[in-house]
Amino acid sequence: MKINRAKAWTFGSDIDTDVIVPARYLVTDDEQELGRHCMEDIDPDFVNRISPGDIIVGKENFGCGSSREHAPIAIKGAGISGVIASSFARIFYRNSINIGLPIFVCPEAAEDISSGDIVSVDPVNGEIYNETKDRTYKTAPFPPFLQDLIEKGGLVPSVQEKMKGAR
Amino acid sequence: MGKTMVEAIIATHSKDRVETGNICQVKVDFAFANDITGPPSVNVFRKMGAQKVFDTQKCAILPDHFTPNRDIASAQQTKAAREFAREQGMLYWEVGRVGVEHAFLPEKGYILPGDIVLGADSHTCTGGALSALSSGVGSTDLAAVWATGESWLMVPQTIKVDFQGKRSKWITGKDMVLALLGKIGTQGARYKVLEFHGDAITDLPMDDRFTISNMAVETGGKAGIFVPDSTILEYAKERASRKFNPVYPDRDAVYEKMIEIDVTNMEPLVAAPHSPGNVHPAKDFSDTAIDQVFIGSCTNGRFRDIEMAAKILEGKKVHENVRCVVIPASYEVYNEAMEKGYLRIFSEAGASISTPTCGPCLGGHTGILAAGEKCVSTSNRNFVGRMGHTESELYLASPMVAAASAVTGRITDPRELEE
Q1: B200 and B276 in one domain?
Q2: Which residues between 267 and 326 in chain B have a beta carbon less than 8 angstroms from any beta carbon of chain A?
Q3: pLDDT at A166 over 70
Q4: How far apart are CA A2 and CA A10, in angstroms?
Q5: Would the ipTM clear 0.85, i.e. be above it?
Q6: Cα-based angle A46, B375, B411 (whole degrees, multiple of 5)
Q7: Of B260, B277, B306, at which residue does a domain stop?
Q8: Model confidence at B419: pLDDT above 70
Q9: What is the pLDDT of residues B365-399, one digit of tens each?
Q10: Is residue B418 in some structural domain?
């Protein structure tokens, strides 16, 4: 989950999953294909301007709306290394953890980071470092249950383990 | 300390300590996906190494979004869902029998009081109208439920919503939930549950209650739950597919806060572009000309919705500049509307009537908007590009506002037609 020197792309509040990946593309769950349309309805040129490893910074209620897991998949497929936001909508939050898209809740970072800032995230120590502004922000830690789920690699390995035990 | 509805329901489904913020492993009573979210769930289910769904009568796929299939890609996707359902012997209903999932499942008695229901669709919260903890999840979470019959839920705080007063005949569940959205906004209940109380819901029909619970997710809520009463229990008993155990909140339940909404002098409302929280009286937009009206969806495609719209359109014509798209949300609704003559009213008024589907609500098909077009819709979201072009605009409203607007060709408070 560690993120090294990523370029930030900032967005506002209430970024909904319809603009993250419009419904017209929901005929596949292929990461690369969905990634081609990431953020298309809020910034049609987004995928052409980003580089692999860049980070998205949103404000309140990031990922609200539809439950489509295609939204975090599209962000991951576009090559984005993670999302920092003041807060996340609950289904998007669960989906991101489940598919292994690193997300960080940090209102201070979400307010302070500007587009183009170079940002690093150290999830173990819960720190976000803004190299451009030379400032450090503390992220909210995940509850222990989720920390454990993340360390196991998400929900799939965790259920795989359970399935093996059941046989 | 007393329990709220959601705490009481989790307690009957989990061995873990039910305390705000605690994560509980829960048994799930019903788990479903649709033609968009189902196929990714199938892929994840296989990746998990699962062989069989935990209970074929508690796991379902409903092809309702891009169906009857709009193109080859969606047909392929539905085919994958159908083949998995056949292989598993799980619940699956075909086009011509299925309805919009959140209208169809309660009708068929698969969502019942006291249940925990998880669906791979955000509007799964609709089931809260039947006093269930019914909530939306993603495809991976859903696949895990199909495999194990369980999931994890964080015990949320509850906001008590108290609807007070006496509604006029122009006020529907849609206006009530829009009023709530106008008051608390699109993240007023983020990670929380709404629990509905008050004398204004005592005589509120089931269909209006479904509308209110349906839009709980638009406030950021995990669920929007009604307390069991005779209306709910009678509906559930008539339709139940299995036994159920209603659960009630304790008298000394602890709520995060209480919100009061008086319906007595409420006016018909709309949510203007581009947020369900941007709520204003419909009459404030009476100069706004429109191109389309959509009456349908999991929010407002039930019998009472269709009936309210039909009564306004009876003997009138859809305005020459307007396309009016009517989509009953299930065949039960469709057939009843046919028997009562409502489909004829729509047809004679010059409206288009379609087979049950989510259709244009999420920009799927059967009524997509072009750049610059405006639509009054009875659905739940008016995000940028939701029903088509990013430069189109959606106004969310009740079936009465929608039908009145179809007649005049501009956004219309239905009381205007009476005057």
Answers
A1: no
A2: 275
A3: no
A4: 19
A5: yes
A6: 135
A7: B260
A8: no
A9: 999 999 999 999 999 999 999 999 999 999 999 99
A10: no
Q: Which of residues 3-62 of B touch A (CB under 8 A)?
A: 21, 23, 36-37, 39-40, 43-44, 47-50
Classify residue B419: in a domain, yes or no.
no
- A141 pLDDT above the threshold of 90: no
Residue with tokens 């929901």: A26
Mutate which: B16, B184, B186, vs A, most A CBs within 10 A: B186
Is the whole model's pTM more than 0.95, yes or no? yes
Q: Is B384 on the interface with A (CB under 8 A)?
A: yes
Distance in Å, alpha carbon of A145 to nearest chain B alpha carbon: 7
CB-nearest to A67 from B121, B186, B390 is B121
The token duo for B332 is: 């039960």
d(CA B150, CA A152): 18
Give φ, ψ of B184 to 5 degrees: -105, -10
Rounded CA-CA distance A59/B172 in Å is: 33
Tell me, yes or no, whether B327 and B256 share the same domain: no
Which DSSP string do the residues of B268-333 spell out, in sequence order? -EEEPTT-TT-EEEGGGGTT-B-SEEEEEHHHH-SHHHHHHHHHHHTT----TT-EEEEE-SSHHH
Question: Does B332 share its domain with B209?
Answer: no
Domain that holds residue B224: 5-260
